[in-house]
Design goal:
- This protein has 122 residues and is an alpha+beta fold.
- It has one domain: Phosphorylase Kinase, domain 1 (2-Layer Sandwich), CATH 3.30.200.20.
- The chain is built from 3 helices and 5 strands.
- Strands 1-2-3-5-4 form a 5-stranded antiparallel beta sheet, with no helix packed on it.
- It is globular, with a radius of gyration of 18 Å.
- The termini are far apart.
- The model has no long low-confidence stretch (mean pLDDT 81).
Length: 122
């Protein structure tokens, strides 16, 4: 006998209540699943899905923190940080949506063609 680890749950990406269509999976962590989706308006969006475990998960404090983060980062020029642009909560899940970027700052600095000195300064 001994310790047995529980297998991670394979939760379906239930985004039927959102105006998106799932295109690909970007990450499947233990708590948050990250999906690449096509919005009904035609643009690519990243949807982070948190499946609630049990009924005792209050999301109101986190929604207030997300709103504060979005307000603080909104006016920064040339920001490499993109806060969630929208979030929604259902009885079973919580969703965060933001626009998809083709690469992050680390990828842009380490892939060819490398940034010129002038581009690095800006």
């Amino acid at each position: 006998m001994g310790n047995q680890l529980a297998a991670p749950q394979k939760l379906a990406a239930d985004v039927g209540e959102l105006p998106v269509v799932v295109k690909d999976t970007l990450g499947s962590g233990r708590f948050i699943k990250t999906l690449l989706c096509v919005h009904d308006n035609g643009g690519l969006v990243v949807v982070k899905v948190y499946h609630k475990r049990g009924e005792g998960t209050p999301m109101a404090p986190y929604a207030a923190k997300l709103k504060d983060i979005r307000q603080r980062l909104w006016g920064i020029e040339r920001s490499h940080l993109w806060p969630p642009q929208a979030w929604r909560e259902t009885a079973a899940s919580a969703y965060m949506l933001r626009q998809h970027l083709w690469s992050n700052l680390y990828d842009r600095l380490s892939t060819r063609p490398f940034l010129a000195t002038v581009e690095k300064v800006m």
